Amino acid sequence: MASSAGSDNAPPTVVQPPLSQAVGYIVVVVVGLIIAFVMVLVTRLLRKTVGEDNQKTEMFMTANRTVRTGLTVSAVISSWLWTTAILGSSLMGYNYGVSGPFWFAAGCSPMIVFFALLGISCKRKIPEAHTSLEVVRIRYGTIAHIVFMVLCLVNNIFACANMLLGAAAAISAMTGVHTIAATFLLPIGVALYTFVGGIKATFLTDYFHTAIILIICCYFTIKAFTFDEVGSLGHLFDLVQTAVTRHPVEGNHDGSYLTMTSHGILFGILHLCANFGLVIMDTSYFVKVFSATPSAVVPGYVVGGIAYFAIPWGLGTLMSSIVIGLENSPLFPTYPRQMTSSEVSSGLVLPYAAITIAGKGGAAAIVLIVFMAVTSTLSAQVVAVSSIISFDIYREYFNRFASDRDVIRWSHYGVVFFALFSAGFSTMLYYVGIDLQWTLYMLGVVTCPGIFPMIFTILWKRQSKAAAIVSPVLGMATGLGVWLGTAHIFGGEVSVASTGLILPCVYGTVASAFSPILYSVIITLLKPQNYDWNDFSKERLALEKLEDDLSTVHSRSTHRPASHVEAGGPLAFKSLEFKRWARIAAFWSIATFLGHWVLWPLPMYGANYIFGKKFYSAWLVVAIIWLWGTMLITIFYPLIDGGIQQGIEIYSSFRRQDARVNRSENDKNESRSSETSSIP
Which of the four pLDDT bands, split at 50, 70 and 90, describes residue 104? Predict the structure, then answer.
């Protein structure tokens, strides 16, 4: 942890919220209800004009598997625009200097791109699936299904708690709204529009929310340099350089904020592992893959993953530099003291930076982007859990012959239940003294055990049933044991404070993530499986006929000899296409990891390089340009790739309906005229 420790020696003065509680409640409640109402209208409009009926399960859960590349890119970026990314990257910048936001971003992009490989493999092998858990059940049976269901639900629960804790703390600091009130009110709008619109509403709100967030982020990049106390990149560098003499960073080379040789790499390792768990074990990512067209999966996740990198890197570097440089200025909210460790770990670095450079307008912008971020990502989590409740619990264990209406009804129950449960769980964590930084550090311990068993389920046909069941359970036990044991060693006790230290969390996360590889391989070698991937295609999982040609071909192919299928025709062509996309996904996965983790940062880390003024300026310029590029891609790509076309279809449908109404009126008038003229 950086330089905030000494600020807790004296009782800190309380920072008064710059906005009134009324503003907070308007954003959290009124804006949320307005967005929900608009999404309800859009959903009904799409059903009326282009036939997207959310009373059908395939539309509610997978958008009829027709989501195109542009909207997939937007959804992928939105899926990682957690309040953690918005607030946490600046927090890490404050703690570790320029290395913090970089490692935060590098801990996100590689696994998003890697997921393209898993996604296209799922689309090829089992195109009618709705969740990853269906894949596990079909291959390994009931016990493995239950084990992975528990792991996925734990992942979703802690992910939502992480989002809500950071969002509620930021909104409370900006407006004075009680943290618990914000925690319970934030999911209301999410539950409403997800209840009605399903996954398509999630995709649409992802687009809308992400566009607003990125516009505000880009606004901060302009506002920062029009603020007199900052003025230019060179002056910001001087401010940060001066701060090193006041508060050197423990663990950084020469105590500098301007070096990659930092303990921030420990957070990078932790964050990389934890985020692999958050992606692989989050069924919402699989739901979005199954919702996309086959040709949209790889470009959607590759472009989305690479574009996303700029958000935590660019925003986190800029805003943490402002706080580091201006913390001793009378303009800073906490002046004359430093931020306390509690304020830092609650994620208030970004809000205080926004207040410093933009006053109440900056505070309002933070409330808005935090609200947009938490509701957008929470929506995906709610859909994921509702899909587990409806498909993996209700349909599988309570009513195998469930009708379309039954599954939709239980999806609705799942939406409401999880929205309330996530708020209640976050409240419990809040009252035992857990904050954003604690959940950010320990998340990987509970999310990582299923990573490699799940990857092997999709990509390795020899993993045995016993290995799939036992290895994640042993991995969870190993991770928890290492985490708590090292917390006791480094902290002298097992407490909230000691379990939130960086080193116990790194050791616990690494053990949780990688020990299942050893367990799975050893158990598999004792009795390996030789699974036939074609067995996946024998399962009929869709509740109604799919329009997707590939699904139709797959369902027909189960009644044909394998030799006939492989000889040629549509399925053979599709298989070649899928293999091509898989090669592209594998290439970009390797390239992204090497670029973000090896070729770019490690030479600077090993050389103990400290940024000079020109290099720091170039670093921020590239980050800001990348951030603006991400904004342009997110806003315009979905419009070009199908958005404008669907708008034209909606307009044409209205024109056709008006024409039918006019013809009907004309026919009635002609009938009346003929009747009148026939009367003597």
Answer: very high
* Dihedral sign, Cα of residue 440, residue 442, residue 446, residue 452: positive
Classify residue 385: in a domain, yes or no: yes
Proportion of the chain above pLDDT 70, given as a percent? 82
**Distance between CA 602 and CA 323 in Å, rounded?**
26
| Residue 198 in this model has a pLDDT that exceeds 60 | no
CB-CB contact of 9 with 101 (8 Å): no
Distances (CA, A) of 528 to 8, 503, 520, 531, 572: 57, 36, 10, 9, 29
Q: How many other CB atoms are there within 10 angstroms of residue 669's CB atom?
A: 10
- Whole-number Cα distances in Å, 541 to 131, 400, 457, 555: 10, 11, 18, 10
Per-residue pLDDT averaged across 278-302, rounded? Answer: 84
Q: According to the model, what pLDDT value does residue 523 have?
A: 95
User: Residue ranges of the alpha helices (H) in 432-561?
Assistant: 436-447, 451-459, 465-491, 496-499, 502-526, 549-557
Listed in sequence order, the residues at least 6 apart from 589 whose beta carbon sits closer than 8 Å to its beta carbon are 110, 113, 114, 116, 117
pLDDT digits (tens, 9 = 90+) for 502-515: 999 999 999 999 99
Its sign, for the CA torsion 530, 534, 537, 538, is negative
| Rounded average pLDDT over 633-658 | 73
Q: Is residue 28 part of a domain?
A: yes
Rg (CA), the chain: 26
Which tokens is 464 given? Answer: 């045995």
pLDDT at 56: 56
In a domain, residue 558? The reply is yes
The continuous run of DSSP H or E covering 46 comes out as helix 32-50
pLDDT of amino acid 624: 96
> 665 lies in a domain?
no
Q: pLDDT at position 562, please?
A: 37
Q: Which residues pair with 292 in a beta bridge?
A: 67
Please tell me the predicted confidence (pLDDT) of residue 215: 94
**Number of domains forming the structure of the chain:** 1
Would you list the DSSP string of 242-261? HHHHHSPPTTSGGG-SSBS-
Look-up of token digits 């492989």: 566
Residue with tokens 């390795």: 460
CA distance 283 to 153: 9
Give the span between the Cα atoms of 644 and 371, in whole angstroms. Answer: 27
Domain that holds residue 598: 5-48+67-655
Q: How far apart are CA 181 and CA 49, in angstroms?
A: 39
Contact of 365 with 220, CB cutoff 8 Å = yes
The token duo for 568 is 């040629």
- Residue 90 belongs to domain with CATH number: 1.20.1730.10
Backbone angles phi, psi at 678, to 5 degrees: -80, -10
Distance, in Å, from the CA atom of 387 to the CA atom of 161, rounded to the nearest integer, reads 19
CB 326, CB 638: distance < 8 Å: no
Residue 387 near residue 61, CB atoms below 8 Å? yes
Span 228-232, mean pLDDT?
A: 90
Q: What are phi and psi of 594, to 5 degrees?
A: -60, -40
CA distances to 212, 441, 506 from 270, rounded to whole Å, are 30, 7, 5
Q: Does the structure show a pLDDT above 50 at 355? A: yes
Return mean pLDDT, the chain. 82
The tokens describing 480, both together, are: 């928890």
Nearest by Cα to 98 from 326, 338, 266, 262: 262
Q: What DSSP state is assigned to residue 57?
A: H
